[in-house]
Amino acid sequence: MEDLEGELGAMREYHDGGNTRDASWRRAQLRGLLLLLLENQAEIFSALQQDLGKHPAEAYRDEIGSAVKSINYALHHLKGWMSNKKAKLPAVALLTTAAIIPEPLGLVLIISSWNFPIGLSIESLIGVISAGNSVVLKPSELAPTCSSFLARKMPLYLDTKAVRVIEGGPAIGEQLLLQRWDKIFFTGSTRVGRIVMTAAAKHLTPVTLELGGKCPAIVDTLSSSWDKKAAVERILGAKFSACAGQACIGIDYILVEQKFCSALVELMRVNLKTMFGENPKQSRSIARIVNRHHFQRLKSLLDDPKIRGSVVHGGFMDEDDLFIEPTILVDPPLESAIMEDEIFGPLLPIITLNKIEDSIRFLKSRPKPLSIYAFTKDESLQRRILSETSSGSVVFNDALIQVRS
Amino acid sequence: MNGVYCNSLEGFRPISGGGRSLIFRCLFTDKSKLPLLPAPASCPTISLCLCSASTSAVHPVMADNKDVFDTREASLLVRELRSIFKSGRTKSYDWRISQLKGIERMMEEREKDIVEALHLDLSRPELESIIAEISGLKSASKKAMKELKKWMMSEKVKTSMTTYPSSAEIVPEPLGVVLIISTWNYPFLLSLDPVIGAIAAGNAVVLKPSEVAPATSSLLAKLLDEYLDNSAIRVIEGAVPEATALLEQKWDKILYTGSARVGRIVMAAAARHLTPVILELGGKCPAIVDSNVKLEVCARRIIAGKWAANCGQACISIDYIITTKIFASKLIDALKQALEESFGENPMESKDMSRIVNLFHFKRLVGLLDEDQVTDKIVLGGQRDEKLLKIAPTVLLDVPEDSQIMQEEIFGPLLPILTVETLEESFELINSRQKPLAAYLFTNDEQMKKKFVQNVSAGGMAINDAIIHVTVPGLPFGGVGESGMGAYHGKFSFDAFSHKKGVLYRGFEGDSSLRYPPYTQKKQTLMKALLNGNIIGIILALIKWYGK
Fold first, then answer.
1. B452 vs B399: CA distance, rounded Å
2. pLDDT tier, B346 (very low <50, low <70, confident <90, very high otherwise)
3. Contact B523/A57, CB-based, under 8 Å?
4. In chain A, whose CA is at the least distance from the CA of B252?
5. Strand, coil or helix: what is A308?
6. Which residue in B393, B400, B431 sits closest to B415, CA to CA?
7. What is the dihedral angle through the alpha carbons of A69, A75, A76, A78, rounded to the nearest 10 degrees?
8. Cα dihedral angle (B183, B185, B188, B190), rounded to 10 degrees?
9. How many Cβ atoms sit within 10 Å of the Cβ of residue A10?
């Protein structure tokens, strides 16, 4: 990493010269990102297929399409975001005005993740650029084709004096974290989140940490077959069709009443066949596990015979192809790793309860997840979930889609 | 044995502890910098320290035989408060209102006690205490009570075609158990203002007041116990050991007011638990003075923003002034005039100015004045009295930029004036330094105001006045860069201690299988159209879709 400090110093000078402040510059960068996506779709599909085995439909839905939508949203609202907001003054303050004025922070570091390597990198860039900052993006080295795509293409569409891509793994990450930034935006695990915040503390750098957790789906006993079908499709879609469960807001596990469990499992079996066919591996609609390390990690979650015994569907794994088929478990032991750690893979434990209301107590004793999903028409249960549990966000009767609303 | 010890969390180890006597020694490398300092006679102490932290406060500690508040105690405290929070007690509107009312009653009924404690700790004149701390807190609690229902309401949010049909809202919820670490210069205000926010947002709270203002610290402990729900709101008094024990726990938020150096320590401790923090730090707050101002008004406001603000010991007080070379002498004359009107011929005897908080800071400030190349730049004041811990309002002209007085936050009654050829040069001067908590400009030139606001970065700004901008509840109070992160005051206090939870409501109607595998070409076309939100595209795609 030759002269990182010199490079960053030059970026800071360019930023301090006011070059990134005008709305016209910000718009130009946002349009650049838009063109980058629209003009390189084939290459993006191929990179995502290469790194993660993502089907183009999934790639479009979760990465290109949603990023395009967010860029257009930013372009539409930029003027409003940039404008000063008048602040109310007490009546006694005559002949005085007050305003809140947004200004860029300066030089921002984005550390992106591997599961939505194009989409999440671009989403982070949109905010940083809209606010008028200069930025260094470090894409995840675990999605190397996508990382190299960004490194090659971004200089062609964006102002390289203010927007840079620095590729690399933990060693580069460490070096970057030693520098002084005006903000760090990190997407990844809680373990690395702590490292990032600790490094940021040395320079009093504010951070935004997008981490994860075990996002539960509370599934109430539904009576209408239309509702049941819709719910099961949404659950399976959110678990298995978004990067094969490797998503921070993917459904991690399910909570359901004992008496509804077998009906739920049956419905899931039927719908899995519709979605992925008899031979899911050949359907090419399920993403692959990102690398051998995570494959081994997921495999070992099922190692214990007690866990193996709780598998009711699936379980097939192919290490050469880094493929794990959609797998459902019922009531694995709560102290097992699969119920303690964030799964981040296509294994779906179902935990049964006596009453669905018990799910609230269940959740309260656990760390706050990024998202809670609840499939229920019972308004009082909805209200209780909302007020008695805490999470990044809550979605009723759907999953994943909240990030696209 | 008399002595003082450092309020520093770094390199600090007890060498013998327990029971009545606690002896600490700082392990800083440059021990030659400060000799053992005798403690102010008013506070008996039993601790001893040699330390060289330039901006940390050195203070006495009370000897007593209560158990040391250690990690185990801190962990039990947090566990207890968490179960109180989990019971839902602090979430109710009624509980929050009752606590805010308690604070309001406390300020009404115990004003005398508060003013007395502030006077003991800081020799603060009564009127300044009432204006700066008591009335500030009264209006903060009043505003919170008035607006709380509104603040607690969910905010409806627009949804797009992609999630049709759906509705969405942002729901504020309390974070849980929060820690507020306060400071010594406005010890009441800076303790209770964040507490008001934390309570309004429905949290359980632990407040650790600064031991450098011991009378206020112990009064806070007594009053909060008396007037508020002490099962959910606690005060932990103490110094480094207590603060360290508290910082080892997992909090849902920490708000720290103090120095950048300790701010780093707080953030690093918070990082271990991924606890978000608000750091209200400081910096060198500059005031640019143009020549087209109404000089007498300007001079009075500068005094209000410097010497009448706790004798310059305020994070937002004017640290230094920049003005043009030709205007400097006029400004100095005006200041001299206004100072005499405010504090009389002999300011050292005036009862209207606070004293320096303790001997450590007194010696630090005198050191700034006595530096070579700086002493001869004094154009007003310079007198000092170690026994009374008083330094006269002092103005200096064109001290060297690399002098210590221009390197560190002054936090005292010394006002350097730097001169430039043209006022625009002042922007460069300010921007070449760390971003301060506040920046001020006195001018009648509209263009100059625009350029200042556009080109200078600071936590907050006031034009043609100083420090008063923090009394506007509609403006966020907080720093940027070295001067801090996060903000509070008014609704920002409520937001500071809340989590804004995004909620999306969907029904089961209107679902189609197009989101899920198997991914057919038709599905992909429709999906593209939906994501683009393009009505024509959607209609065309739907026609193709249903025309199968």
1. 24
2. very high
3. yes
4. A368
5. helix
6. B393
7. 130
8. -50
9. 12
pTM of the model: 0.90
Tell me what the mean pLDDT of segment B370-384 comes to.
Answer: 96
A197–B507 CB contact, under 8 Å: no
Determine which helix (DSSP H) or strand (DSSP E) holds B30, and give its type and residue range. none
> B97 CB contacts (<8 Å, ≥6 apart)?
B145, B148
- Does position B537 have pLDDT exceeding 90, yes or no? no
Beta bridge partners of A351: A255
The radius of gyration computed from the CA coordinates of chain B, to the nearest angstrom, equals 27
Query: Is B49 one of the annotated active-site residues of the chain?
Result: no
Would you call B136 an interface residue with chain A, using a CB distance cutoff of 8 Å?
no
List, in order, residues 6 or more apart from A53 with CB less than 8 Å away. A244, A284, A286, A287, A288, A322, A323
Biggest CA-to-CA distance, chain B: 96
B497, B176 contact by CB (below 8 A): no
- Rounded to a whole number of angstroms, the CA Rg of chain A reads 23
Q: Which residues are paired to B289 by β-bridges?
A: B323, B442
> Is B260's Cβ below 8 Å from some Cβ in A?
yes
Rounded mean pLDDT of B44-61?
35
**Is B421 a known active-site residue?**
no
Candidates B178, B465, B531: best to mutate against A (most CBs of A within 10 A) is B531
pLDDT at B66 over 80: no
- Looking at residue B488, the DSSP 8-state letter turns out to be B
- Cβ contact B391:B384 at 8 Å: yes
Size of interface A-B (CB pairs under 8 A): 175
Task: Select from B171, B263, B268 the Cβ nearest to the Cβ of A386.
Answer: B171
The answer for residues whose C-beta is within 8 angstroms of residue A131's C-beta and 6 or more apart is A81, A102, A104, A105
Query: Which among B274, B482, B515 has CB closest to A204?
Result: B482
Annotated catalytic residues of A are 210, 248
- Spatial distance between the Cα atoms of A215 and A235, rounded to a whole number of angstroms: 12
Is A401 within 8 Å of B159 when comparing Cβ atoms? no
- Cβ of A285 within 8 Å of Cβ of B517? The answer is yes
Q: Is B475 near chain A, with CB under 8 Å?
A: yes
Dist CA B114 CA B112 (whole Å) = 5
Let me know the angle formed at the C-alpha of B356 by B353 and B360, rounded to the nearest 5 degrees: 175
CB contact under 8 A, B531 and A202: no
Smallest Cα distance from B299 to chain A, Å: 19
Nearest chain A residue to B511, by CA: A230
A237's tokens: 């879609």
Q: Suggest the residue from B427, B480, B516 to mutate for an interface test with chain A (most A CBs closer than 10 A).
A: B516
Classified as helix, coil or strand, A272 is helix
The closest CB to that of A237, out of B263, B515, B528, belongs to B515
pLDDT at B63 over 70: no
Instruction: List pLDDT tens digits, range A254-268.
Output: 999 999 999 999 999
Q: Does the CB of B41 have a partner CB in chain A at under 8 Å?
A: no
Decide if B519 and A285 are in contact by the 8 Å CB cutoff: yes
Q: How far is CA A296 from CA A140, A293, A303, A320, in A?
A: 20, 5, 10, 12
Going by C-alpha positions, the residue among B515, B523, B517 that lies closest to residue B548 is B523
* Range with the poorest average pLDDT among A359-368, B458-467, B530-539: B530-539
**In terms of pLDDT, which residue wins out, A33 or B68?**
A33
Kindly report the backbone phi and psi dihedral angles of residue A289, in degrees, each rounded to the nearest multiple of 5, phi listed first. -75, 140
Give the pLDDT band (50/70/90) at residue A78. very high
| Cβ neighbours around B510 below 10 Å, total | 11
